[in-house]
């Protein structure tokens, strides 16, 4: 494997349901993601984008095959190690933000570090500044616009310096101006060296990415 390959996927499958009722919703024979790429994952609703992102980020386990991350298999390890992998290597951004409603923007950004103890406040403040939210650290999600909530979610994803950002329809709940702002932010992160994989229905946003992977019925059509 070449040194700049971050992720290598071989014969990855995911089935839902059991026995005769099992349906294969993902079947990715071969996929490589290199460090520093900015990739759009596209395809019609139900083609398996979320399923693939969840497997790449170890939020879900495959039915067959494995994923190699920095040369090591992800799934050949126990739950504690998997949990650490997720926390240290992956930054997730979701369509619906998934912020904790009772916590301030600052505490939401610090949340991934809760199991690690305190000491992340300065970094969280700096990240909120970088995403354009200086002065709004004390606000709760309800008092922020959708675009602002997604910026908090991006800052949270960056707290522990992940190698890979996985974004599942991050602009899906936003108007086009805010959606463009979020994509510009992801692009900036990529220019600063982060590998970014973003699932999107929006063809115009996809065209802006360095590479497009298209899924159809769970398989990669072209990339
Ligand atoms: N928990 C589940 N149980 C059964 N089937 C599921 C489950 N989750 C997803 N599926 C099915 O797997 C297929 C892929 O779903 P997935 O959410 O990955 O698609 P997607 O491309 O992300 O769709 P969208 O663009 O609408 O978010 C779909 O046919 C979906 O109905």
Automatic annotation (TrEMBL):
CDD domains: ABC_MJ0796_LolCDE_FtsE
Molecular function, one GO term: ATP binding
GO biological process, one term: cell division
Domain of life per record: Bacteria
Sorted UniProt keywords: ATP-binding, Cell cycle, Cell division, Nucleotide-binding, Transport
Residues in ABC transporter domain copies: 7-223
Pfam families: ABC_tran
Gene Ontology CC terms, in alphabetical order: membrane protein complex; plasma membrane
Protein name (Swiss-Prot/TrEMBL): Cell division transporter ATP-binding protein FtsE
